[in-house]
Please model this.
Amino acid sequence: MAKTSSSPPPYAPPPNASQSPPTGIPSNFQRVIQRNPIRGTFIISPELQVPEELLGLRDQCSDGGPKNLYLEATKKEVDVDIWTVKAEPRMSVWPMLELELVDLVKAVVTVRSFGGWSETPNKLRLHVGSGTSCALTVNSTSQDIHLALPSNLVGPITLNVRSNRVYFSESVRMRLVTFSEKDGQRQGFLGDAAKEGYTTRDAWLGSSLDVTLQSTGSLYLFALGEECPPAEPGGGGCIVG
Model:
């Protein structure tokens, strides 16, 4: 008689929802700062050249140089889809030059929310297009963050969540290796760091994620196409594997 098992079926990751970007004109070095909620879809092409006069007067960003996309809601929440896309390669009379066009291009994106009295969570859906990567930084003073990532995203992750309430979907939990965790501060890697040849962030051409959530808010991290994971009683708990 064949033995039966009560073990769950093998895990199958969700389909990657980042198939093709929506119809729209890509932008670059886009900057939005406003008191009202920031909503919509942002299509960023890191290689796109933008005339200086179209960028307007700009202060230096507090966390470094210019960003391919900078969003800051000073009083309310953020609810956005962010797409990174690569420019269409130009035809060349020198075929060997076209090989250089396959290099990975990185978009640097910062999203900040300071809606202290709003109970509406920040919702971000990151879509990383073929031939691109994204260095995403998210900062919220108090509101929850619902962050959906491509199911095949690989790279280092730094989480600084003061409340230590961090909730992962099953697909993210199975791919995330946390190397250190203390008082809401976590350092990890989404995927196999050794297999990917990861050494340092400065040398890494792929994607990365930095999330800072101050005060009592919670972070929900899941894959595109998945439902937001439920909050677990007692907080996110230790997830060092």
Notes: The mean pLDDT is 83. Residues 170-175 form the longest helix (6 residues). Residues 31-223 form one domain.
